[in-house]
Specification:
Number of strands: 16
Number of domains: 3
Low-confidence stretches: none
Distance between the termini: 103 Å
Number of helices: 6
CATH class of the largest domain: Mainly Beta
Radius of gyration: 36 Å
Structural class: alpha+beta
Mean pLDDT: 80
Order of helices and strands: HHHHEEEEEEEEEEEEEEEEHH
């Protein structure tokens, strides 16, 4: 069904474009162009890009075409006037030649490009560092001797940075340490592959630090009301834990289960809402170790929870939760997605299209502007002076 819709709408778009070119009436050409825009908007709907389809109708088929029609009617181009000789004799052959060249170049590009065999380019891997080591104020993180994070405080994370694919040795040092002479607190081999987002979480304490590589999913969330969650177990007791939704105490729901110490859970998707998150020993729902109450989780985000503890002066431990929230990539065709692409990857094409529209508008004015007729020379004539004004005014003497 989708293939037939594409064929039918594509045929209508091609016919409308051809009629726009061969129509002698400028108004009819503009109407055929509006039909072509509507077909393109339908294609965007087939790609689940409703916002782009709406912009196509509102901006192009609406505002821009109204401007075109206004200019056409203002210049009187909708009137077909017989002319003995065309004003621009070179225009028709030049247009045919340019159309044939464009057709040849497009055909060559499609054949040589092997569009059906081309795979989409995967995005470069991204990596960041998260500090959750008890007893260490701040840390630096290195990949193969190259610093990727500097002076990351406890409970905070560095920003994501793109890295080349390959295997690396990740090392964590106290902030300000020299990686060439000082020993690292912990190290861990990581493999960066295209399209992967990696968080290097430093957990444990100053005596036994560890580095955990957590694969997060910052890709587009299909459900507009959903978000993704990952949990890391870094509790001092080294017990496996369950992360439970305590919002409804009578009907508790386990979000992730049996997460061992030093490991991360699988990425899960949950609905946006206000949650009461509880952490329990694996398989037990009686002893609540720690939790987050009244936590508002927003849709379209990726949340990383690190459940850890900090040692106090009296050698006791207090529960600490590192709660990190990152915006996921917006859904395809959404306003945020279109804005990101428009002002990042497609800035230059967007400006070129804007310039092309300006040139097309000026060209339409030049091609449709009628020759000005020679101005008529008018002889000024004075109005006849009323008879009453011929008499002299009081106080004046006549000759």
């Amino acid at each position: 069904m989708e293939l037939w819709l594409f064929i039918i709408i594509g045929a209508v778009a091609i016919i409308a474009a051809a009629m726009m070119l061969i129509s002698e009436n400028a108004i009819y050409s503009a109407l055929f162009l509006i039909l072509n825009f509507a077909c393109i908007a339908f294609f965007f709907l087939m790609l689940n890009a409703a916002f782009v389809a709406m912009v196509q109708i509102a901006v192009y088929a609406g505002a821009i075409m109204v401007l075109f029609l206004f200019v056409i009617m203002l210049l009187g181009a909708e009137r077909v006037l017989p002319e003995a000789q065309p004003r621009f004799r070179w225009l028709t052959p030049a247009a045919i030649i340019l159309a044939l060249v464009f057709l040849a170049v497009s055909t060559l590009a499609i054949i040589k490009g092997e569009i059906d065999l081309t795979r989409p380019k995967l995005e470069e891997p991204m990596v960041r560092a998260v500090h959750a080591v008890d007893g260490v104020p701040a840390v630096d993180v290195y990949l193969d001797g190259e610093q990727v994070a500097r002076n990351v405080a406890f409970g905070e994370a560095s920003s994501f940075e793109s890295r080349a694919t390959g295997r690396y040795d990740a090392q964590i040092f106290p902030a300000g340490a020299d990686p060439e002479t000082d020993d690292p607190l912990a190290e861990y081999p990581v493999n960066l592959v295209p399209g992967v987002t990696l968080s290097l979480a430093a957990i444990g304490n100053a005596q036994e630090p560890e580095l955990v590589a957590v694969t997060e999913d910052l890709g587009q969330v299909d459900d507009k009301d959903a978000l993704r969650v990952v949990a890391i177990n870094a509790l001092h007791g080294r017990m496996a834990i369950d992360v439970v939704d305590d919002t409804d105490s009578g009907n508790r729901r386990a979000l992730v289960e049996n997460v061992p110490y030093g490991k991360a859970s699988d990425v899960i998707e949950i609905e946006k809402d206000t949650y009461n998150i509880g952490v329990y020993p694996a398989g037990s729902s009686r002893t609540r170790l720690m939790g987050i109450d009244d936590e508002d989780l927003e849709a379209g985000t990726a949340v990383l929870w690190i459940f850890t503890e900090q040692r106090q002066d009296d050698n006791s431990y207090t529960s600490t939760i590192v709660n990190l929230e990152t915006d996921a990539r917006p859904p395809f065709g959404s306003p945020a997605h279109v804005g990101q692409l428009l002002f990042s990857r497609y800035v230059l094409p967007f400006e070129l299209v804007s310039l092309l529209l300006l040139v097309a508008m000026i060209g339409a004015i030049v091609l449709t502007h009628e020759r000005l007729a020679p101005r008529r020379r008018f002889v000024r004539r004075l109005a006849n002076v009323p008879a009453g004004l011929e008499r002299s005014l009081p106080g004046e003497t006549g000759d």
